[in-house]
Please model this.
Amino acid sequence: MWAIARKDLAIERRTGEMLSSLFLLALLVILVFAFAVEPERLAGPEIAAGMLWATLLFSGTLALNRSFLIEREAGAWTALALLPVDRGSIYLGKMLANLVLLAFAAVVLLPVIAILLGTRGLEPAPATLAATLFLGVFGIAAIGTLCAAIASRSRAREVLMPLLAFPLLAPLLIAAARATSGALVGRGPAEIASWLAVLLGFDIIFATAGWLAFDWIIEE
Amino acid sequence: MTTNDGNPRPWRDSILPWLTGAAMTAAIVMVFLVVPDEREQGVVQRIFYFHVAAAWLAFAGFALVAAASAWFLRTGSEAADRLAQACAEVGLLFTTLVLVTGPIWARPIWGTWWTWDPRLTMTVVLWTIYAAYLMLGRLSAGDDTTRRYAAVLGIVGALNIPLLVLAVRLWRGIHPAVMINKDPEAGLKDPSMIWALLVANVAMALLFDWLVSLRMRLLRIDREIAGLDLEDERA
Model:
């Protein structure tokens, strides 16, 4: 599990493919929203939180879509299946690498969004915000890794993966956006506890589901 | 290769279509001729019998998708996989019926086609989950691995439902939702209304069953044809 995560992160460190495309796409999503709606209307903590999760969702799913491409293209899928480890560990390793990438993206994107859309009225509560971001990107990584694996065999995987992931991520998106907008105006964990609980439940359920499901995903 | 076309299946081929037709006729007669007008909503309320029946069947269908998917992953049974696929298709059709009949009722009663009420939000997200499930089958090679992947998705989709319900309740519950209180179920005073709902449910259930069995047969024939093509290529 650690070896797979380390391998994926090492590839990423050397090529920077996923992160650079992720950031560029995220920036473009922000610009698209700003052009489509008057930028002045996008000010305020609620919009900033919503924009953060919308950009993470769009750019994250597209970046995560590539997570099994390396194995598929290099013909290493069979090698993965032959690994003398529990199949679930392969999932956890992949998910961990994706989690690190997404967390990094979230930490960079949040100030970018805050600066571009205006920082008026923001008094972030750092610990709550960090917890929310972590729980949110954990969920995207859990669902995204599973959906990327499911879509990886399809001839239309670029389209299929977001089709599978977005509806499944709907509860996470609702909870993460509300929790983040709370944390951005200085609310403590107690005030947004129900949202954090939804996020935590989501993460536990789908990380477990992905871990168990990989017994059937990698079997060729 | 097993082909059942030699031995007729009387339930599916002769009894079920007629039974469905009879039950549907009975439901239409009850809803349009027997049941009285609802006092406040008037004639529009009659759509409720089909709307609610379709919704129950749609949810039952999605529960069946998950159960059949789990069964397929455990046993590798071809029939379980076809059942999951057929239930997702027919379930999606019934969800579409719910999403079409709902606004027709809501426009005169609530004054708007759509509102982000928890139930409406949940239904439309469910629709997208199962539409994506069917897209997976469309966009992938129809082999055993794809079937396993679809089964995993069928279960994960069902796991999502409780979280979805919780999230949309919390989300829309923060704002005072005037419309949720106008629950049409609160007003089933006339006993014939309850009977009409029951009959509509039975009719919808039979229709569901019939459509699922037809789709399952079609999927079986499809796979047999694909198998024959493979044999031709080998020969």
Q: What stands out?
A: Residues 174-181 of chain B have pLDDT under 50 and may be disordered. Residues 191-234 of chain B form the longest helix (44 residues).
